[in-house]
Description:
The protein is α+β, with helices and mostly antiparallel strands. It has 1 helix and 6 strands, in the order H-E-E-E-E-E-E. It has one helix at 15-48, and strands at residues 51-60, 64-73, 79-86, 92-100, 106-114, 123-129. The strands form 2 sheets. Strands 1-2-5 form a 3-stranded antiparallel sheet, with no helix packed on it. The chain has a 3-stranded antiparallel sheet with strand order 4-3-6, with no helix packed on it. A hairpin with a 5-residue loop joins strand 3 and strand 4 (92-100). The N and C termini lie far apart (79 Å). The relative contact order is 0.19.
Amino acid sequence: MSTVQLPEGRYGRSADERADRKLMIIGSVLGVALLALIGYFAFHYVGGNKISAEVISFDTSGSAVQVHLEVRKDSGVTGYCTIRSQAENGAEVGRADFRFDQDSNRVDKVLTLRTTAPGTTAELLGCHAD
């Protein structure tokens, strides 16, 4: 037996074509909304961080780590940076927050991070504006 095929375009769109069109529209709207949301969060993550820093060098001793930290920030912004030190086996032996209240855009400081055991690293965990 053969199936009967309706003439093309004579009876309008089939239900499948209408459903496909609706799904394409819904998918496009959701895709654009997702991209807008990602862009919003990316802009606020990058643009919202008013303090950035990097560890230039560090020097370890038995009970402390001397850290040379370079901080870049907007003038008038205050905040703090968190630094930690780890022992050779990976255990954390020291962690501290260091405040930066200076009015300048760039601050170079040598900081002393006290440790409970000999530290082998100085790691900048992050900086936050008040």
